[in-house]
């Protein structure tokens, strides 16, 4: 056994074994607190000068009050109301840009409908599916049946067949779903959120079957609400499917800055300690999000991240406009990094060529310089070497995605050339580019050695 360090805290001794005793290690290991279980985290747990309840700002939070969406809520409610009289409501197609409250409003109306129906003794049920995840006909049908199962869990019908999430022929799943709907009776509203993803992945068979299912049902009724922020999916639909899906259409317009101010102010009351938000913070978050496209999700993200930055900043008693600007920069970097991760390998290699130039001390590079580095390193990792023309196309794409900035400059008798530079933290870009397994071999590239070679060949 090695040396033993005994550190007495209240009346319980804590024993640390080290081999041999390292006083530095001891001083790091021992938290200066009365309660060793929360030691390191104590200051974060007791210090709530900023947030009262930050969960209120998260995407998963379901608000009960939705400012500036009364007309849309009323419209959805009026279309679904017949279900309370056991009549089939019209199908609805809801369209609007991202973050305009489509999902939040439909969920709200859905839960009010279920409450009203249980008060009135009728049977109205809502099944909400996210088609980004559930994107095949089989999974949609099986998931609807699964949700019905959960709703009916307390019912006396224990003999019901459970549809497995894979393995059956689709016809059998459809037939079993119909049996279950008939056995349950009442009205079922199926919400297909991000319906465009389902159609693009699996075509319109699911919608064709679901929009015709009422013809095969006697004692139950089905209605569909499709939600999308991309109307181009309509082009993929058979005209008959489209006309029955869009019996009613509702558009959710983007929020303007004053509307976003109201949305944030309403959340701020629940989320933040009184007085924790400096005066210009809410209008600034609202203005920045309205500049994008009136996206409430973006406004709420900015607001939450500003709060988190203020919370971590021990000097700060309030969330300030400075925190909002930092939050905006963080969101932009994070989304850019996400975008870089999904780029094709060739584009990542072009980015990596720019990073090499930066490592060599250049802040602005020309497309010629980028091309030369690219053409030199591409064969070393066994990638096909693209032509200069193709490389400049990919550079333009990187510019369009906001990963780099470019400008065209005139070089007198040498003609015009494109210059480019990075705005963002290149350390993070390097990290994400090198995560691509095909570029991993570049990690050990000795840039200074290559520089000598490049200087020799380029400037001969
Ligand atoms: N009027 C509103 N009042 C309060 N919060 C809102 C309002 N509108 C949207 N939100 C909030 O903004 C976020 C995004 O809303 P929601 O998910 O409903 O948008 P969406 O239009 O469905 O977006 P997407 O098309 O990207 O799915 C959610 O956290 C939601 O609670």
Automatic annotation (TrEMBL):
Q: Which residues form the Cdc6 C-terminal domain?
A: 351-433
Keyword annotations from UniProtKB, A to Z: ATP-binding, DNA replication, Nucleotide-binding
Which GO biological process annotations does it have? DNA replication
* The AAA+ ATPase domain, residue ranges: 88-256
Entry-linked Pfam families:
AAA_16, Cdc6_lid, WHD_Cdc6
Which positions in this protein are listed as binding ATP? Answer: 100-104, 255, 267
GO molecular function ontology, one term from the record: ATP binding
Q: Cite the InterPro entries for this sequence.
A: AAA+_ATPase (IPR003593), AAA_16 (IPR041664), Cdc6_C (IPR015163), Cdc6_lid (IPR055237), ORC1/CDC6 (IPR050311), Orc1/Cdc6_arc (IPR014277), P-loop_NTPase (IPR027417), WH-like_DNA-bd_sf (IPR036388)
Domain of life of the organism encoding this protein: Archaea
| HAMAP family named among the record's database cross-references | ORC1_type_DNA_replic_protein (MF_01407)
Biological role stated in the UniProt entry: Involved in regulation of DNA replication.
Describe the family membership recorded for this protein in Swiss-Prot or TrEMBL: Belongs to the CDC6/cdc18 family.
Q: Which PANTHER family does this one have?
A: CELL DIVISION CONTROL PROTEIN 6-RELATED, ORC1-TYPE DNA REPLICATION PROTEIN
* Protein's name in the database: ORC1-type DNA replication protein
Query: What organism, scientifically named, is this protein from?
Result: Methanoregula formicica (strain DSM 22288 / NBRC 105244 / SMSP)
